[in-house]
Amino acid sequence: VYAEDFGPFDGSIWLDCSHQGPLPRVAAAAVASAVQWKVAPFPLADPSLFERVPSALRSALARLMNASADEIVLANSASYGLSILARGIRWQAGDEVLLVENDFPASLYPWLPLREHGVAIRFVRPAGRVVQAAELEAALRPETRLFCATWVNSFVGEAVDASALGTLCRRNDTLFVLNASQGLGARPLDVRSTPVDAVTSCGFKYLCGPYGTGFCWISPSVRDRMRLVQGYWLANMTADDLKTEAVPVRLREDLGARAFDVFGTANFFNSVGWTASVDYLLAQGIERVAAYDQELVSRLIDGLVSIGCDVESPHTGEARTTIVVFPPPRSGDAGAFGRALQAVGIYAAVRRNRIRLSPHLFNTATEIDRALEAVEHIAASL
Ligand SMILES: Cc1ncc(COP(=O)(O)O)c(C=O)c1O
Question: What is the mean pLDDT of residues 241-245?
């Protein structure tokens, strides 16, 4: 049972992984040991630690997506990677970025400053909850240089068909950027077999990392054509170089993805914890975790439907995710419903006047049943 590896939750039930995924115990222990490095900094005297910490994280993240470690940009959020792409791609006059109307704001904001540089920002409006391949096909133009979409939409709980969207982008010579923040850790993604040019994600949801974590995978062919947007001393030299008489100050050309890393790459409280979380998930197997999560989701949706809740997120199929969304029963106020759930120890999210429940491997079938009982009880008392 995965639940034994998390918590303790003291009887409360966390059904809000789409907001924050809890740290597995093994990661909490790793963070505690990293805290000790700073309480008594003797381990920090070893300069290789500043290399080992980021490189362990890079390897774990690469394994997650069948990528190579030197293709991983370490970040502090999902937004960081998008921002690097926005600043680093060599835009040409007349280029356009295509976005999805009503997409999660983190997938939209990083591109907006490009207007200042003459890049047009256009939106495709989905008729349903998320953009469909036919809608993208109709929206792509010769000048569409890049299309960015969220894989799993946190508001509506539906996944886009990344392969279909990416295939259309390839055909149009358009870069396809996928924000995988609400999917990675709960759905497998292979960057070698999916037609994506870049994948960005935060680390603190289904990857169960600390807050302030994230990364971006950029395909080497895209990365090699990007403009260098920063120069970070610790990427270009080592702490050992400081010991030499003539300290080198020269931009290296062989850095690959590391040239785009966030500064302070060895931030060990976060990195050590996140590496332990990702290693833990990899040891369980993402396919197995995904299957377990979907068992919980099936149970949750079946239960909600039988209580009479109008579950709006997909009930079946590939577009179904770990996010289950429904309006408060009897068109009530979702805020009040969410507070009533929390009063009995069930933590849901309220988004766009809907209740959102988002389980992951730390939850159990018993917890789902308890949440269903609470929903039924509160609905009956309205
Ligand atoms: C789709 C999506 N992207 C990104 C984020 C987080 O973004 P960031 O790590 O840039 O703060 C969230 C968090 O709710 C999200 O739902």
Answer: 88
